[in-house]
Specification:
With about 240 residues, the chain is α/β, with parallel strands linked by helices. It has one domain: Rossmann fold. The protein contains five helices and nine strands; from the N terminus they run αβαββββββαααββ. The protein starts with 9 loop residues before the first helix and ends with a strand.
């Protein structure tokens, strides 16, 4: 579903969230959009995300969704100062995605893109939740003569994450059987995240306001959704162990 053509109003976005929230066959909403001004998560767009994601919020919702959805939102490209995450990425119940570059971009390894917005929210909550590839990503573009174009942004990292959640739900449909399935899915994304390159702190994964839970690991997330317990794998490079 296309909400806006490059530029749109908050009311259009809220209407789109509410429409998707009322579709019985929709489980995941992916939103590569947002405001450039920082938010505390209490703005109308962020509250619409909360309403779509968690039945506990619905007493204050204008439209009551049929069932809870998982909403994945771009963190924004207003980094690298603290508290640069806007709406609706600042929503408490959004899975908010930052952008990382890969090994080919810089000799120090996987690193956080300079443009990726940082937390905390103006309310003080940790954001983003996870980081995914978002630098020089090849994507389809109908208006380009080749049919493809290379883009950078958290808008490119967001569909990587949303697309990874789909096989997690296929592996374990029971994840959707609670008031706020986003909480269970977020926990799985965090516990399965990779420590890579600059993102690695060589210790337990603790979400922070730059990388969130570090780098998305689709294979581990899907496996853990199905009940598998995977130990970290490492390879040795230049005298240091790096987690795969």
């Amino acid at each position: 579903m296309r909400l806006v053509a490059g530029v749109g109003s908050g009311s259009q976005i809220i209407e789109g969230i509410q429409y998707c929230a009322n579709q019985t066959d929709v489980q995941i909403i992916s939103m590569s959009l947002g405001t450039t001004s920082a938010s505390d998560g209490q703005d109308a767009m962020s509250l619409a995300v909360n309403c779509a994601s968690d039945s506990n919020y619905r007493a204050s919702c204008n439209v009551t969704p049929i069932n809870s959805k998982i909403v994945v939102v771009a963190a924004g490209n207003s980094g690298s100062a603290p508290s640069t995450i806007g709406a609706p990425g600042a929503a408490e119940k959004a899975i908010t995605v930052g952008a990382a570059a890969n090994w080919s971009e810089d000799g120090k390894g996987v690193y956080l893109a300079a443009f990726s917005s940082r937390g905390p929210t103006l309310e003080g909550r940790i954001k983003p939740d996870i980081t995914a590839p978002g630098v020089r990503i090849l994507s389809a573009k109908a208006s380009d003569p080749t049919g493809y174009i290379s883009y950078s942004g958290t808008s490119m990292a967001t569909p990587f994450t949303a697309g990874s959640i789909a096989p997690m739900l296929e592996q374990n449909p029971l994840l959707m059987n609670n008031a706020a399935p986003v909480d269970a899915v977020r926990d799985l994304l965090i516990s399965s995240a990779q420590e890579r390159g600059e993102l690695s702190n060589n210790g337990p994964i603790m979400p922070d306001n730059e990388y969130g839970a570090e780098l998305l690991d689709v294979n581990r997330a899907v496996a853990q959704a199905g009940g598998a317990i995977l130990l970290p794998l490492y390879f040795h490079k230049f005298g240091k162990n790096h987690r795969l």
